[in-house]
Amino acid sequence: MTDQLPESTQTECLARMLTVRDALDVISGKWKILIIISIMSGHKRFREIERSIPKISSKVLAKELKDLEQHQLIKRTVYDESPVLVEYTATDYVFTLQKVIEELHNWGANHRKKILGK
Question: What is the pLDDT of residues 58-68, one digit of tens each?
Answer without folding.
Answer: 999 999 999 99
